[in-house]
Automatic annotation (TrEMBL):
Keyword Protein biosynthesis: no
PANTHER family reported in the protein's UniProt record: PTHR31375
This protein's UniProt keywords: Cell wall, Cell wall biogenesis/degradation, Glycosidase, Hydrolase, Secreted, Signal
Higher taxonomy: Eukaryota, Viridiplantae, Streptophyta, Embryophyta, Tracheophyta
Cytoplasm is among the record's keywords: no
Record's subcellular location: Secreted, Cell wall
Active site: 251
Domain of life: Eukaryota
Protein's name according to its UniProt entry: Polygalacturonase
InterPro entries on file: Glyco_hydro_28, Pectin_lyas_fold, Pectin_lyase_fold/virulence
């Protein structure tokens, strides 16, 4: 009888251990199902073979997943070649999808190698999302140097967010886009932070971030070094907050390309802060000024303008050429040659 009791006790212990192990295995499988690694869907990551279809397969699986917070993973240590690709969030089961990009993504090396199924105007696009988190330590390189020799009107945008809301982008590096590196179009509640964007100073129309028909956009704590505007703001954009941006070379933060063909267009509630201007040269400028104050440098007391150089400048007031004047506040630099007004 004692032996029977011992055997029964051992069976009960084994049963408990088995149930516990099964539960642990089930939890592990659930965690695996939350992450959709492009390597597991056939991506090679050698920088030579096209991984676009494998990325699309991994994305479709993440989109169809019943997991509350699926993650699309591009792992580090590999370089993934992608043709133009658009990921659509319209029919995804989750409104809390994450893209973890830790590897290097590159575009084809020349325009003729781009393979678009339709007349695409961007390289990597995200459409119709409500809840998207894009983050990581990876690099997205558009290999745009061959594009820069063509008309900028024909060049493709690099990374586009369109018709979406509640989107975060954090930590990534963007390089050498054919045209604008990042574009926010017809979207709202966008937050971009800790980004690095860079292209050579001679690269045309390679804006760091372009905002068009979008509202409630926040861009902060980022370094943008391109050949055109660091941040450009187009028509129908409202409630834009830009802070703590290191900008240059390039054209700074710009609002422009409005009113083409006589259209009336609006940009409202744009706020910039913690912007430092330095190493700017104004040279060989001759002309007339509509206002008496022909030169005006008005900089922040806490973050003054530095290393401003004026050389060979002659500006006259169109009404009274001898009354042209200048105004400088918290601007430091040098004057070379003739500078009028001084």
């Amino acid at each position: 009888m004692a032996t029977s009791k011992i055997l029964l006790l051992l069976l009960l212990i084994q049963c408990v251990v088995f149930i516990g192990s099964s539960r642990q295995l089930k939890n592990t499988n659930t965690n695996i199902d939350n992450t959709f690694n492009v390597i597991n869907f056939g991506a090679i990551g050698d920088g030579q073979k096209d991984d676009s279809k494998m990325f699309k397969h991994a994305w479709d699986a993440a989109c169809d997943s019943s997991a509350p917070s699926p993650t699309f993973l591009v792992p580090r240590g590999k370089t993934y070649l992608l043709q133009p690709l658009t990921l659509n969030g319209k029919h995804c089961n989750s409104n809390n999808i994450s893209l973890q990009i830790d590897g290097r993504i590159i575009a084809p090396t020349k325009p003729s190698a781009w393979d678009c199924e339709t007349n695409c105007n961007h390289w990597i696009g995200f459409e119709n999302f409500d809840g998207l988190h894009i983050q990581g330590s990876g690099t997205i390189n558009g290999q745009g140097d061959k594009w820069w020799k063509l008309s900028c009107k024909d060049n493709e945008k690099g990374f586009m967010i369109g018709h979406s809301k509640n989107v975060d982008i954090k930590g990534l590096t963007f390089e050498d886009s054919p045209q604008m590196h990042i574009a926010f179009e017809s979207s709202t509640l966008i937050h971009a932070t800790e980004l690095t964007i860079r292209a050579p100073g001679h690269s045309p129309n390679t804006d760091g971030i372009h905002i068009q028909r979008s509202t409630n956009v926040s861009i902060e704590n980022s370094t943008i070094q391109t050949g055109d505007d660091c941040i450009s703001i187009g028509n129908e954009s409202k409630y834009i907050n830009i802070s703590n941006i290191e900008c240059g070379p390039g054209h700074g933060i710009s609002i422009g390309s409005l009113g083409i063909m006589g259209k009336t267009e609006e940009v409202e509630f744009v706020h910039t802060s913690a912007v430092e201007i330095s190493n700017i040269a104004y040279e060989n400028i001759n002309g007339t000024s509509h206002k008496e104050i022909a030169v005006q440098l008005s900089c922040s007391e806490s973050v003054p303008c530095k290393n401003i150089t004026m050389k060979n400048i002659n500006l006259i007031y169109e009404k009274h050429k001898d009354k042209t004047s200048s105004y400088c506040l918290n601007a430091r630099g040098l004057r070379n040659g003739r500078v009028h007004p001084s």
